[in-house]
């Protein structure tokens, strides 16, 4: 018997075919776009190096929802639950503070062996891994500077941390057969009027050059650098600003990371993609949702998420854009946060794939902006949800809000047992 989902799918196929869109081809393309889920949504960016320590570096997870993961075992279990509710290819993005060791390990001494459980788990779950040095929540970052620190020893400590992190990242890529994108974000900046804005930037260029001096196999490891406008307590000056990293990534040909929350409130990263791609080989996206500030709210299926997805698809950037997420909301169930945000990113990608882009492009070329706007608006109400539901069904994931039942069960059976 044909189910209502199958009937809706057949009708959707016809509706999209009428505007020249092949829905099967769209689903095949969607499978080429993994979304890298960030481990730090699962424990409010605490990590396992010093879980009792406070989060520093001008970022903040607000809320106190019960049941956060307290160790790697719990975090992996929570991730498995989230992953099972999200269709299609996924990756996991790890920070260095999520290492596992019986002994304390200094950040400049981290090694691949401290992440071997993550690699085994990633293999078992058919996931690629991405990585980040953790240049925050540490006594040597307490005065607000790391790679641009004026003190040679402290700066060297962070350079050595990045060097050690690159080895871990290359190990991920080598073990899993897919390059790990390693993103460098540092919190360095000043709260108030800064007299010498140049010297820290000069030191940062030199530190990054030294940290990335070893040539690593690009099949295993990709370097990325992330800019930022401001942080809490670093409102007046950020060493690694947009201009700084745009110049750095362009001149060194590293990947550039664009975080949706790291620009002035009316700036959008969707509009930066087509410019940046002219100068850098790759982009890493931190898809996030800034509400009034860099608040890292859960990603919605909103206009900007859609615009980001549309840029990737319209310009065929499948192999040059790495899609990562960066939000941390501790006020709601953390697993639900992952599921909502990642499903939304994937829905936006699917909707972009279902767009009759060539027709729209032609209208634009011909100067028929009336037809362009009319078609853009009409296609918003084509039955894309029926295509999404078929994709979810084919991937053995819940097609609608039923996924929340699975999260609620897990909350009752597992999360509520955590003190
Ligand atoms: C924990 C992440 O690395 C961090 O969120 C960084 O990517 C960032 O966006 C800081 O504001
Ligand atoms: Mn980010």
UniProtKB/TrEMBL annotation:
<protein>
    <recommendedName>
        <fullName>L-rhamnose isomerase</fullName>
        <ecNumber>5.3.1.14</ecNumber>
    </recommendedName>
</protein>
<feature type="binding site">
    <location>
        <position position="296"/>
    </location>
    <ligand>
        <name>Mn(2+)</name>
    </ligand>
</feature>
<comment type="pathway">
    <text>Carbohydrate degradation; L-rhamnose degradation; glycerone phosphate from L-rhamnose: step 1/3.</text>
</comment>
<keyword id="KW-0464">Manganese</keyword>
<feature type="binding site">
    <location>
        <position position="294"/>
    </location>
    <ligand>
        <name>Mn(2+)</name>
    </ligand>
</feature>
<comment type="similarity">
    <text>Belongs to the rhamnose isomerase family.</text>
</comment>
<dbReference type="InterPro" id="IPR009308">
    <property type="entry name" value="Rhamnose_isomerase"/>
</dbReference>
<keyword id="KW-0963">Cytoplasm</keyword>
<keyword id="KW-0684">Rhamnose metabolism</keyword>
<dbReference type="Pfam" id="PF06134">
    <property type="entry name" value="RhaA"/>
</dbReference>
<comment type="function">
    <text>Catalyzes the interconversion of L-rhamnose and L-rhamnulose.</text>
</comment>
<feature type="binding site">
    <location>
        <position position="262"/>
    </location>
    <ligand>
        <name>Mn(2+)</name>
    </ligand>
</feature>
<comment type="subunit">
    <text>Homotetramer.</text>
</comment>
<keyword id="KW-0479">Metal-binding</keyword>
<keyword id="KW-0413">Isomerase</keyword>
<dbReference type="GO" id="GO:0008740">
    <property type="term" value="F:L-rhamnose isomerase activity"/>
</dbReference>
<dbReference type="InterPro" id="IPR050337">
    <property type="entry name" value="L-rhamnose_isomerase"/>
</dbReference>
<dbReference type="InterPro" id="IPR036237">
    <property type="entry name" value="Xyl_isomerase-like_sf"/>
</dbReference>
């Amino acid at each position: 018997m044909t189910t209502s989902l199958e009937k809706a799918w057949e009708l959707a196929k016809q509706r999209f075919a009428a505007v020249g869109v092949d829905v099967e081809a769209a689903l095949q393309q969607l499978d080429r776009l993994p979304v890298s889920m960030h481990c730090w949504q699962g424990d409010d960016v605490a990590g396992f190096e010093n879980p009792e320590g406070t989060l520093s570096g001008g970022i903040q997870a607000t809320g106190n929802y019960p049941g956060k993961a307290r160790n790697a075992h719990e975090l992996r279990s929570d991730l498995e639950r989230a992953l099972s509710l999200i269709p299609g290819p996924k990756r996991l993005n790890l920070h260095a503070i999520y290492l596992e060791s019986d002994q304390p390990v200094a950040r400049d001494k981290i090694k691949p062996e401290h992440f071997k459980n993550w690699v085994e788990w990633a293999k078992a779950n058919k996931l690629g891994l991405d990585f980040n040095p953790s240049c925050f929540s540490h006594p040597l970052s307490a005065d607000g500077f790391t790679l641009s620190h004026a003190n040679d020893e402290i700066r060297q400590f962070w350079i050595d941390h990045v060097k050690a992190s690159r080895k871990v990242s290359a190990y991920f890529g080598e073990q899993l057969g897919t390059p790990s994108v390693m993103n460098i974000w540092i919190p360095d900046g000043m709260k108030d009027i800064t007299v010498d804005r140049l010297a820290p930037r000069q030191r940062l260029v030199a530190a990054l050059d030294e940290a990335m001096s070893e040539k690593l196999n690009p099949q295993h490891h990709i370097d990325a650098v992330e800019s930022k406008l401001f942080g809490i307590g670093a409102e007046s000056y950020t060493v690694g600003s947009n201009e700084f990293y745009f110049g750095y990534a362009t001149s060194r040909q590293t990947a550039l990371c664009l975080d949706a929350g790291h620009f002035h409130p009316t700036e959008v990263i969707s509009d930066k993609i087509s410019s940046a791609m002219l100068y850098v080989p790759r982009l890493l996206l931190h898809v996030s949702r800034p509400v009034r500030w860099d608040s890292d709210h859960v990603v919605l299926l909103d206009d900007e998420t859609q615009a980001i997805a549309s840029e990737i698809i319209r310009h065929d950037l499948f192999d040059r854009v790495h899609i990562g997420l960066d939000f941390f909301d501790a006020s709601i169930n953390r697993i639900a946060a992952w599921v909502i945000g990642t499903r939304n990113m994937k829905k936006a990608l699917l909707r972009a794939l279902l767009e009759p882009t060539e027709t729209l492009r032609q209208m634009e070329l011909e100067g028929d902006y009336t037809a362009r706007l009319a078609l853009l608006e009409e296609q918003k109400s084509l039955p894309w949800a029926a295509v999404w539901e078929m994709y979810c069904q084919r991937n053995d994931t819940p097609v609608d809000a039923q996924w929340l039942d699975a999260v609620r069960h897990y909350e009752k059976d597992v999360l509520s047992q955590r003190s």
